[in-house]
Amino acid sequence: xxxxxxxxxxxxxxxxxxxxxxxxxxxxxxxxxxxxxxxxxxxxxxxxxxxxxxxxxxxxxxxxxxxxxxxxxxxxxxxxxxxxxxxxxxxxxxxxxxxxxxxxxxxxxxxxxxxxxxxxxxxxxxxxxxxxxxxxxxxxxxxxxxxxxxxxxxxxxxxxxxxxxxxxxxxxxxxxxxxxxxxxxxxxxxxxxxx
Length: 195
Ligand code: IMP
Fold this sequence. Notes:
Layout: E1 2-5, H1 10-19, E2 26-29, H2 46-61, E3 64-74, H3 95-105, E4 113-123, E5 129-140, E6 156-158, H4 170-176, H5 178-190
Parallel strand pairs: 1-2, 1-3
Antiparallel strand pairs: 3-4, 4-5, 5-6
This protein binds inosinic acid.
Inosinic acid (IMP) binds at residues 69-72, 85-86, 116, 149-153, 165, 177.
């Protein structure tokens, strides 16, 4: 069986392949289908976007497809930026712009609790889709710290740690992250389909 991983992000591919042991599958990625356009991520939830990516790429390739969508959900902001995490400060905003906006929105809030969440979708070529999600709970600090990682990492301290995601090594982050937790759940739930 062939499985397509619906990403053009080499780092995500590595992370997925490190958790799954795809011995009996031929694993392809969006890099193998340059003719297929990027899926427009216009869903209102992480679940909708992950399912849309998986089903559209599965239909276009005729292969089982795995896709993910992640975001940062801040309690005092009713779950924002959530599905809009990548474009919180606007379509062309940078990671730094997003972080500035997040700190501004939280300036008068006492509750700084937040979670990163990842939803992973698996679709067959007919569009039958299954979902799992994983999270990493923590707090948003008042000033960014650290140079590793990307996105909101300098502002997020996971529970049980005193360092931000951007101060922790990638080894530690990749063990405790929302993506790692979601991938482990996907592995548990779908190991008979994907091995
Ligand atoms: P994606 O679905 O993995 O592309 O993530 C969407 C957006 O969520 C990213 O552009 C980041 O703003 C944010 N995000 C997702 N995962 C992380 C993370 O591990 N650290 C920091 N920001 C993240």
